[in-house]
Prior knowledge:
Layout: E1 5-8, E2 16-19, H1 25-39, H2 45-60, H3 67-82, E3 86-90, H4 92-109, E4 112-115, H5 122-136, E5 147-148, E6 158-159, E7 169-173, H6 177-185, E8 189-193, H7 200-204, E9 207-209, H8 213-227, H9 231-240, H10 243-266
Parallel strand pairs: 3-4, 3-7, 7-8, 8-9
Antiparallel strand pairs: 1-2, 5-6
Amino acid sequence: MERRTVYVGASSLPRVKISKDHPRYRSLVTRERMAAMVEEGIVSTTGLIAHGRGEAFDYLLGETTVPEADLAEKAAAAWLLRAERPVITVNGNAAALAAKELGDLARATGALVEINLFHRSEGRLRKVCDLVEEEMGMKVLGREQDAVLEGIASDRARCTSQGLLAADVVLIPLEDGDRAEAMAKAGKKVISIDLNPLSRTTLAAEVAVVDELTRAVPNMVRWANELRNRPEEAQAVLAAFRNQENLAAVMRRICRGLRKGTADRSER
Length: 268
C-alpha cells in the first residue's frame, strides 16, 4: 500500500514533506501548524517556546495519556458539569491547537468560552476570536473586555464581567500562571491542562491535568458526556479525587521515564 505524505508549512517558510511513517509524525505536523499560526498572527513567537517546553515533558510521559491524566480529566469534566458558571479561557496556543475540540467541550458542559491573550493587540485579538468562532461554530467572549482580575499587573488582568469575572469554575488550557493564581485567590476553582507539572498554572489548580492538549480535551468531552446525566457519580468522582496525590504520581512517572530513557541510551 502506498504511504501517504503530508506537506505542511507556514506561508513564508518552505513547505515540509512529512511522511506518515515518521515516528514523530504527529509532533512534526503540530510544530509546522504552530509555525504557520505565528505567520497568521494567532500564536506569538514566545508561544512556540512554551509549546516546546511542553513537548519535552510529553517525551517523558511516553506521548500518551497516562492513567493519572485520565483520572484528572474525569474530575475536570465533573467540575465543569457541576459548576453554575463554568468558563473555558483560550489563548493563542490553545486556539491554534484545539479550538474545535474546546468548542465541543463547551457544548458538552454548558461552559462559556472567553479569549484572553498575554501578547495582546486589537488586531491579534480579532484574529484569534475570528478563528475560534469559526472552528467552534459558536460565539465567544473577549472581543470587548470590560473587567479586570485583581492581582495581575499585565494585560492578562483584562477579562469580561460575563465570563471570567463571574465564573465559579475556570478551565485554563495551557500555561497561564498569572491568571491561574489570581483566580484561585479569588475563590474560583481552577482546572489546568499543562504538560509542565511544575508550572504555576499546574500548582494553582484544583484539578491539574498533565497531558497534551489535543489528547486531553477529547477525553474530557467523553467523560462529560458519560457523567452529564449522572450527578451522583460526578459528585463521587470529585469526592474521591486527590489532586496533590495524583500530581505526585505523575511526577514519579516522569522520573521513571527519565531513568528509562537514560538506561535505554546507555545500552546502545
